[in-house]
Write a structure and sequence with these properties.
The chain has 8 helices and 2 strands. The protein is an all-alpha fold and 198 residues long. The chain has 2 domains: 97 residues, no CATH class; 67 residues, Winged helix-like DNA-binding domain superfamily/Winged helix DNA-binding domain (Arc Repressor Mutant, subunit A, Orthogonal Bundle), CATH 1.10.10. It has a two-stranded antiparallel ribbon with strand order 1-2. Helix 1 crosses helix 4 and helix 6 packs across helix 8. The protein is globular. The N and C termini lie far apart (62 Å).
Length: 198
Amino acid sequence: MRLGFPGVWRGESLKRHGRVAIGHDSKVISLLNSHGERLYRLLVRLCLREDVAEDLLQDLAVKLSQASSFAAAQDPYAYARKAAVNLAFSWIRSRQRERERTMWLSAHSTDEPPPWMKLVNAEDIRRVLEHMESLGDRDRLILAMRYFEEAEYEEIAQVIGSTDHQARALCHKAIERLRKAMVEPDPSVLEPRTEVEP
């Protein structure tokens, strides 16, 4: 399935929903014209929603146009990719907090809980993304590039400043840390033990 890449910035100012980007518009537009579709696909894979990916891509464009560090970046795409990954995980965190609040409200409600229909694959991906949140920035970036963007180790090595073999090893270690995080029980889910008196 080919994703529909939004072209809201092509030849236009970065305006949408009342937000206006100022500053480095031409550099951002150039980046989005050359790498926008790739960034959009990455955001869709991380967020699992095209509408959110489009909004995050617009937020990314605004943030990049206002960031002086983006203007000075040696590799604008690497800078934008890292910012996109961070935006996606911020959105995932906010969704997790909202989901927890909704679950708490439904558990404390006298009404029947709403019917939640979840696809197994989508839930598995959400679970992986939630546990990726517990990893460090570099691990998240490496895993997002390798498994969501499907980048080669050579490209990952360039972004993180290492050799191809080091990038492969770091990716393997990041996967191990992710697996460990997914296997360890979440202390917030465990109920406290109660002692039984004899």
